[in-house]
Amino acid sequence: MANRWKNVLNDADVTDHSVFLNRRQIMAGAAGLGLAAAIGGPRAALAQEVLEPNSFEDISSYNNFYEFGTGKDDPARNAGSLTTTPWTVTIDGLVDKPGEYDFADIMAKMTIEERIYRFRCVEAWSMVVPWNGFELKDMLDLAGVRSSAKYVAFETLYRPEEMPGQKTAVLQWPYVEGLRLDEAMHPLTIMATGIYGKDIPNQNGAPLRLVVPWKYGFKSIKSVVKITLTDKEPPTSWNIANAREYGFFSNVNPEVDHKRWSQATERKIGGGLFAKRVPTSMLNGYEEEVASLYAGMDMTKNF
Amino acid sequence: MITDRVNQIARRVPNWLVYILGISPAGWFLYLGLTGGLGAEPIKSLEHELGEFALKLLIAGLCITPLRKHLGVNLIKFRRAIGVLAFTYVFSHLLVWLVLDVQIVSQIWADILKRPYITVGMVGFVLMIPLVVTSNNLSVRKLGVRWRKLHKLTYGIAFVGALHFVMVAKGIQIEPISYMLVVIGLLALRVPKKTLPLQR
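Above: the input entities. Below: the structure tokens describing the complete assembly.
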């Protein structure tokens, strides 16, 4: 494929797992003396200059996955009950070969690569995540997208007995999301199946979840069971819940504020109690790659 | 009876103990925040814990009168301590928001004006100032009847506090709504009986 995306962020931008664990031990030891804030170690300080550290532990303990509760630590606590094998993804709608695709079969046909992406939540916090996965386009090609398709609709698993959050009506269940076809086919758009080379934790959307790095995190729908190619803009969960605050596009944009808070800055997770806010980048730093998708569009209206 | 026992014990508990017990959670939250015990993003957690505890104290304060009126439990001597503690928590919550969370001075003022849930929260804080300033024996004596009237502001403050929590939540969440219902229930207990003619 000619237009495949190359990593800009590299391993230096992700805190090494063992360094992070080491640092935690130092901090735990110092905590009793009340010195935690003062000690980080020279290597940790160096890593911070490059980019705020994001450990496997942070990535897998601070999640928004309302199917398992609305607290940030609820998913890590409650997602253990989720059964992810067997798992099938139904691909239907405007495709040549609609049907149920077994997750293991999909994996056998895909080439897994590492993608280190910035991840920006609509709540104005961010992380850097080393995903493992494949381009969504490659998976859609398995089913053969018809030329009449204009949008892609996604659906998360609905299984209240394993997803306790689905017993309350915080959102309409199942969670649904959508992309325009050109966004879905963009080489930056991936289905992630792992983090740090391990299987993706349940709380991060096992066994496979969408990742669209230039959009707010809630667009990157988790634990996907259904993908429908359509010619109409599909409904999306947060837009249904509050259309004033959450648009269909939800591209990261420091110039378009959320109705209740500014999007001009963000806080990188992992910086502790005294973490500084940093400016948010247009399209989350992927302007060069994806701005052309929105050429001539009023981003303030189409937020 | 059990109410007598409670009243007896309450009489023996000194107010300074209430202050110490009341302020210790704040110290605990801060300790957790500094040592990684509040998770990957301790700033929001600390802000939330302090705010939620303030709301609990406001609710505790609103329970004093109904407890005495309907159950004969007299905890009125703790009411001032509870109120002053509630203010302390609201103020710390505000400080965490200003210093650790928003950080940027120009954005703070813009947020207060532009974001309704912050406007509502600030209104609650400002309403508490005259109450904390007059939470001393001299003010009670000097203001007399007016003191009691002034301190009825507590009702509005508790409501505004719960509203702030409901508004800040993303989506309709159970926890803030539960707080709101409790506050509304406690305020409803104060509606004078004569406005409910059927009960006569």
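Note for the figure: The radius of gyration of chain A is 19 Å.
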